[in-house]
């Protein structure tokens, strides 16, 4: 029978995957905790300032008139709340990292932001977090996981490429400068389609799936 779309089923699946993968112990010394937006934002700026050289991030409000800012805020307020993760990383009672990810559109999950305090970098914490996020987003049913990073941010780019992310595009962003776009496809079929678009691989397998591959 044809599947009947259900927003309630999606929310329930997302909640279960979130609880399973994005709470509790992360490493021997670090645990994950889901928090509300206000708590997350309370800690985030200090983490950003402490994390080291992340390149200049311009406050774009300074380049906008008051009227432009007001209209932008109205548009943001009009957005329907989406499925999202706001996670803090704790070592004991100390907040040593933060992660934010969200549903960007109907089938894409956007890894918006992550930061680990400088003293905790280089211990495999980001790689461990990445595995958990991929598991949660995949279990929730997203067909694509997407992120953008500074072109020289090897601390993030290397783990993601090793995890199977593909380079999809580059962008010059007013706020951050040159960014690299990465895509990860949890499903084998979607991975095959993406790789076929790059170099023609998997033609026979995709034809077998019914795609019009010449």
Characterize this entry briefly.
With 214 residues, the protein is an alpha+beta fold.
Number of domains: 2
What class, by secondary structure content?
A: alpha+beta
So what's the overall shape? globular
Helix proportion: 40-55%
Q: Which fold name corresponds to the CATH topology of the largest domain?
A: Aminopeptidase
How large is the radius of gyration?
19 Å
Biggest sheet: strands side by side, in what order? 1-2-3-4-5-6-8-7
- Report the CATH C-level class of the largest domain: Alpha Beta
| Biggest sheet details | 8 strands, mixed
Q: In percent, how much strand structure appears in the residues?
A: 25-35%
Distance between the termini: 31 Å
Number of helical elements: 7
The CATH architecture category of the largest domain equals 3-Layer(aba) Sandwich
Low-confidence stretches: none
Q: Kindly state the mean pLDDT as a whole number? A: 89
H/E element order: HEEHHEEEHEHEEHH
Give me the count of strands: 8
